[in-house]
Amino acid sequence: MDPIKMFVPAAFASELGLADHLESDKDRANPSPWGIARLIRREVRRHGLATRRELRKAIEPFLVAAGFEGDVNKAIQLVAGRMVDVGELADLKVENQRGYSAMPSRWIKLSDTDAVLLGTTATETHRFSSFHPNQFLRRFRPSDSIVTDLTQIGVNEQSFEDWLGEPSWKSLVEPTDGIESLADLLEWQIAKLDQEGLPLFLDETKVFAIDHSPGGFFGKVRVPEGGRWTSPTQLGEGIYIGAGPGQNQQHWIPILLRIDGSQSKSVSLNCRNDATATYELRNWLLIALGHQSGKNEVVIADHESEKIRFTFPAPSHAIRILKLAGEPSANWQEYDVSESRSAVKLLSHSMCELHIQQ
After folding, report:
1. Would the pTM count as exceeding 0.85?
2. Which are the contacts of 346, defined by CB distance < 8 A and separation ≥ 6?
3. Same domain (yes/no): 25, 57
4. Which of 37, 123, 150, 180 fits as disulfide partner to 136, beta carbons 3.0 to 4.6 Å?
5. Cα dist. 166→157, 162, 174 in Å?
6. Helix count (H) and strand count (E) of the chain?
7. Cross-strand partners of 266
8. Whether residues 257 and 215 fall in one domain
9. 234 shares a domain with 214
10. Which own/partner contact pairs does 120-129 have at CB distance under 8 Å and 24+ positions apart?
């Protein structure tokens, strides 16, 4: 029988991986995603599925004993949500409650020296460790020995293309629309603008538009100064993505507009009355417009610091790639990646409409 061990909270947190931070990380107020993900995998592996309430009941005592305070449920759900995004867990309803179930365990090769293990399988032979304070994924070098060991426990390789699936814009259209490409989607929306758009009086309008100058500071529609948001009167003729006033000063509605003197018009973007889907549509159309005009939206890759940053609001398809390849930093839409050059290859291969600035 193993002797009973006594831990102070800090040592207990370290033992569980809940304090797995780099020395440069100054924010130690929240438990490490690495440790929380380990506990989530353990519970889902044991039961096959778990409601949010069951996860909190099982994991909260560990966080409290490790000395962490604050909103425990929020900390758990943030990590669980990230695990769903990359396909480690499935989000579902269990008896009218939100919960999570296990996804088939598999590994994905990102490069010759970088791979990711997804799923809840316990890896007893190899203890994959964290290299980043915001990491929850189990990353490893795909050596022959590790791949063989994973295969022996039933964990096989899944190709990156199979994991990624179709571009997310395809989920925004109906099969009957006859839209086969991102360019088709843009043309379909422009045709709708021309048919259904309302007159836009440039000197009187309160709408803002996004200029075609990718790569710079994007800004916010509520605070347009210094960013790409500007009055239509400052732009030349053409098609633009913009925003119109909504229910209050904080609410803006995505729009598509044509600037053409007295013939200018605009139409609200709306995808199934779903705000998330509508903004996803807006982000894809911004990429499509840039590609059509030859001014592709810009992604900045800094190979010295191993960081990749979107300079525009990227669609979920693009964000999902970097969620697998790296971890979000403190900056807007910036990711720390273990191998920036391989991450750039994955991104450029999957989204050729973007310009990667290296």
Report:
1. yes
2. 110, 160, 321, 325
3. yes
4. 37
5. 19, 9, 14
6. 10, 18
7. 198, 257
8. yes
9. yes
10. 120/41, 120/42, 120/44, 120/45, 120/88, 120/89, 121/45, 121/153, 121/154, 121/155, 122/41, 122/42, 122/45, 123/150, 123/153, 125/149, 129/20
Domain contains 2: no
Indicate whether 196 and 212 sit together in one domain.
yes
Neighbouring residues of 335: CB distance < 8 A, sequence distance ≥ 6? 307, 308, 309, 322, 323, 325, 326, 327, 328, 329, 343
Domain boundary among 293, 314, 348: 293
CA-based end-to-end distance of the chain:
58
Q: Which domain holds residue 141?
A: 106-163
Residue 309 is classified by DSSP as: E
Question: pLDDT by residue (tens digit) across 17-63?
Answer: 665 543 334 455 578 899 899 999 999 999 988 999 999 999 998 88
Structure tokens at 26: 């100054």
pLDDT tens digits, one per residue of 134-190: 999 999 999 999 999 999 999 999 999 999 999 999 999 999 999 999 999 999 999
Among 130, 148, 163, give the residue marking a domain's end: 163
DSSP string, 156-216: EE--HHHHH-S-GGGGGS-GGG---SHHHHHHHHHHHHHHHPEE--TTT---EEE-S-TTS
153 shares a domain with 181: no
